[in-house]
C-alpha cells in the first residue's frame, strides 16, 4: 500500500473543505414549486453558511423533475462547475407516472455524474403525499435541500482528496 493509499484510509468525510472558490449549480424543478423553492432556499443557505461565495452559485430551472438529469448534465459539462445539486419533488399519483420519473431521474443523475466525473446530488423528494413533502422541506423532518447541499460539499472535498 502506498503512502497516499494509507492517507486515504484515515481521512474523515466530515472533514469539510474550504468551498469559498467552488462553483455550485442548483437545478430546480418548477413542478410543485411551493416545495422545490423551499428545497432551493435550504440548499442555498447551507452552501452560504459553510463558506460558499454567493457569486459562485448558479441556478437553472427545469419544468419538472424528469428534466433534471439532462440539465444537470449540461451544467456538469461546464469546466467551471464543481458540483451540481438537482432539486425536485415527485409525489405519488394514481398512476405509475411517479415511478417512471423517479427511476429515470435517479439513473440519469447517476449517469451524468459518472460521465462528467463530478458530484451531482440527488435532491429529489419522493413522498406519498404533499404533507410528507412539506414535512421534508423545512418542516418536522428538516429540509432535504440542506442535506443535498451538505452532500455536495462533502463530495467536492472528497474528490479533491482522492484525485
Ligand atoms: C407529469 C408530471 C407528474 C404527473 N408529476 C410530477 C411530479 O410530481 N413532480 C415533478 O417534478 N414533475 C412531475 N411531472 C412532470 C415531469 O417531471 C415532466 O416535466 C413531464 O413529464 C415532461 O417531460
UniProtKB/TrEMBL annotation:
MF annotations from Gene Ontology: 6,7-dimethyl-8-ribityllumazine synthase activity
Among Pfam families, the record links this protein to:
DMRL_synthase (PF00885)
One Gene Ontology cellular component term attached to this UniProt record is:
riboflavin synthase complex
Binding residues for 5-amino-6-(D-ribitylamino)uracil: 31, 65-67, 89-91, 122
Concerning its family, UniProt says: Belongs to the DMRL synthase family.
What does this chain do? Catalyzes the formation of 6,7-dimethyl-8-ribityllumazine by condensation of 5-amino-6-(D-ribitylamino)uracil with 3,4-dihydroxy-2-butanone 4-phosphate. This is the penultimate step in the biosynthesis of riboflavin.
What name is this protein filed under? 6,7-dimethyl-8-ribityllumazine synthase
The species this protein belongs to is Dyadobacter jejuensis
Q: Gene that codes for this?
A: ribH
